[in-house]
Design a protein that fits this description.
Length: 367
């Protein structure tokens, strides 16, 4: 993802030279702090950088309450109750399992050996609880990536093998639930499943949740050039899913994620105006425009759209994405940054500056 670092470096020049931007003809120029022309995201009611939530892509108050409960009390029941009431086939269950697994992994990083006592108790006291089994499997996957000596190390592989077994045990506890198999997609990518093995795993997911956007995003990684596929295979996977997507499905946005995964190392100006990028963006805009307002995956698509619309200079559309997702940055592309909140804030500031450079203002941004 060298392009991300190139874009960050370019954007950070703006931040270093001054936090305010102004309008001057068709271009974006730096403004003196306090100037009446200064573009300030806070004028739009957007969250301050330090207030941005890096854990989730969008609001989920029930999840936040449960996470706070298990953190404060050290008890697992609130997490179990939330997952028990979350539909199996929906996107929300996968996101919540990821969030609980991520919270446990972070606690263990901060407190090796003693962190996440609630998850340990959950597994000991409710061994047959499918929610606890799924969170445990997700924890192992995240531990393998975060603290195992890196990809290819012996510890990395050992933890992934343990995660694979945990996924399979979790699947036995919840027939019909695609989440354990979706979690195993990360294991398949890291352990290098053959295409036949991967296809067999994918078939189990499609049988249970054929339009699951989160599953398709996880599977797309396997087919990318940097893992076990190629640019052509990833694009074919994304385009096929998009073509089959019914109206209202966010799968129409999958080609945009394939673009993200294969941005060239050297990005020329015309890349952002290419037919491939334009088609992917239009598909993603169509997807979020026709999806249910409460679709939990819409935030993932809007974050990716913001990343793409800013260098394309499509300021009003970029601001529309900020309007929907601001406050939360737990999604690609920000989550691959060392400081997701900072990276998002830079793109947001550029979107505001470009919007105002072309006549926009807080008064003209739709509510």
């Amino acid at each position: 993802m060298e392009i991300l670092w190139i874009l960050i470096a370019m954007a950070m020049l703006v931040v270093i030279m001054g936090p305010y931007l102004r309008r001057r003809r068709a271009g974006i120029r730096l403004a003196v702090p306090g100037s009446s022309d200064a573009a300030d995201p806070e004028n739009y009611g957007f969250a301050r950088q330090e207030q941005l939530d890096i854990r989730v892509p969008g609001p989920d108050e029930d999840l936040m309450d449960a996470l706070e409960n298990v953190r404060r009390t050290g008890q697992w029941q609130a997490a179990s109750q939330l997952l028990a009431g979350t539909p199996k086939q929906g996107e929300l269950r996968w996101q919540r399992v990821q969030a609980f697994g991520g919270a446990a992994a972070l606690e263990l990083v901060e407190q090796p050996g003693t962190g996440a006592p609630w998850l340990k108790a959950w597994r000991l006291e409710a061994e047959k609880d499918p929610g606890g089994a799924q969170v445990h499997a997700e924890l192992l996957v995240q531990q393998a990536w975060r603290a195992s000596g890196g990809v290819g190390s012996a510890d990395h592989r050992i933890i992934l093998e343990e995660a694979r077994e945990a996924c399979r045990k979790a699947a036995l506890l919840a027939p019909g639930d695609p989440v354990p198999f979706i979690t195993e997609l990360a294991v398949a990518r890291a352990l290098g499943y053959s295409e036949a093995e991967f296809d067999a795993l994918w078939a189990k997911i499609i049988d249970r949740a054929p339009e699951h956007m989160g599953a398709h995003l996880a599977a797309l990684h396997y087919w990318c050039e940097k893992w076990h596929g190629s640019r052509e295979k990833a694009d074919a996977f994304a385009q096929t899913a998009a073509a089959r997507a019914p109206r209202g499905s966010l799968l129409a946005a999958l080609p945009l994620f394939a673009v993200y995964e294969h941005v060239p190392e050297v990005v020329l100006t015309n890349f952002w105006g290419s037919a491939t990028v334009t088609r992917a963006v239009e598909g993603a805009l169509y997807a979020v425009g026709t999806a249910r307002p409460d679709d939990p995956m819409s935030a993932h698509v809007r974050h990716m759209l913001l990343w793409c619309l800013v260098p394309m200079g499509r300021w009003a559309e970029a601001m529309e994405q900020v309007r929907h997702v601001d406050g939360y940055v737990g999604a690609l592309p920000w989550s691959f940054s060392d400081d997701p909140a900072e990276m998002y804030a830079v793109y947001r500031a550029l979107a505001v500056a470009g919007y105002e450079a072309n006549g926009g203002s807080p008064a003209t941004l739709p509510l």
